[in-house]
Write a structure and sequence with these properties.
With about 260 residues, the protein is mainly alpha-helical. The protein has one domain. The chain has 13 helices and three strands, in the order αααβββαααααααααα. A hairpin with a 3-residue loop joins strand 2 and strand 3. Helix 5 crosses helix 10. The N and C termini lie far apart (about 40 Å). The N terminus is likely disordered.
Length: about 260
């Protein structure tokens, strides 16, 4: 569908040779500079296709938590952005270039700030490991990505974001990628000062909700597979850390939750 002529491939390769394609997630045909350019274009589509929360206090708080975690990652020198989507379902997602989105429904279920931090650390890890970029590369030919970067395929951008928002293939990471994001996220949130037990407790809570027939979490389990196995892995990793502690909750977070609820 997105097959293009060689004229689109050549400019992309010329750009790539000038920027270098490094990144935590291994080699890629897209450099970090290109990924951040692509992310800006995708973020503009997310804003068009979803309803972002415009409450300044709520957004500022979410960004504070996100930046605290982002600051301990290997991509701390790259700009990240954190937004809230007005959606009652329990979910979160990230797109290439450091853009992380948290549904208001997830914040409603995250009783403590360490639970919110766990989800944000997990999504940040998908960006750091370049899983989000890998999803785009798997779905689009290299020529199509080149034309997107050149601003010549707005329809492709719109389709990618529509798939993510609808929970299509673009929103689903492999079990291996999810485990890596859990492992990295657990490390990042702990180094940022949050109690790692928040990740374990939140996943346990969502699993119990799902088993109880709560439909609001069905999208989360569709986008984040293998939850019971992941709970076991997270528990083992926390035990291996030894005695850990950190920020569990924050009165300011409870104010934000009430505002969004």
């Amino acid at each position: 569908m997105y097959r293009k002529t060689l004229v689109f491939v050549i400019p992309l390769l010329l750009i790539a040779t000038g920027c270098g394609s490094g990144g935590i997630g291994g080699t890629s045909g897209i450099s970090l500079d290109q990924e951040w350019q692509l992310g800006q274009q995708l973020a503009a589509q997310v804003e068009q296709q979803s309803q972002l929360v415009r409450d300044p206090q709520a957004v500022a708080y979410i960004r504070m938590v996100g930046e605290r975690i982002h600051a301990v990652t290997p991509l701390a020198d790259r700009p990240f952005d954190f937004e809230i989507i007005n959606d009652p379902t329990v979910n979160a997602f990230s797109i290439p270039g450091g853009h992380v989105y948290i549904n208001s429904g997830l914040i409603a279920q995250a009783d403590k700030v360490d639970e919110l931090a766990a989800v944000m650390a997990h999504e940040i890890s998908h960006v750091v490991a370049r899983h989000a970029l890998k999803q785009v590369e798997q779905q689009q030919e290299i020529a199509a990505i080149g034309s997107i970067l050149l601003g010549q395929s707005p329809g492709a951008l719109s389709q990618i974001v529509a798939q993510i928002l609808a929970g299509g293939a673009m929103a689903r990471f492999s079990r291996a990628d999810e485990k890596q994001a859990d492992d990295m996220g657990l490390d990042f949130m702990t180094r940022a000062g949050y109690d790692p037990h928040g990740m374990l407790e939140f996943f346990q809570k969502l699993l119990a909700m799902d088993q109880g027939g709560n439909s609001s979490v069905s999208r989360f389990f569709r986008d984040h597979p293998g939850t019971q196995d992941r709970i076991n892995d997270i528990s083992s990793r926390i035990n291996a850390m030894g005695r850990t502690s950190g920020i569990v909750d924050d009165p300011d977070y409870q104010v934000i939750r009430r505002r969004l609820m």
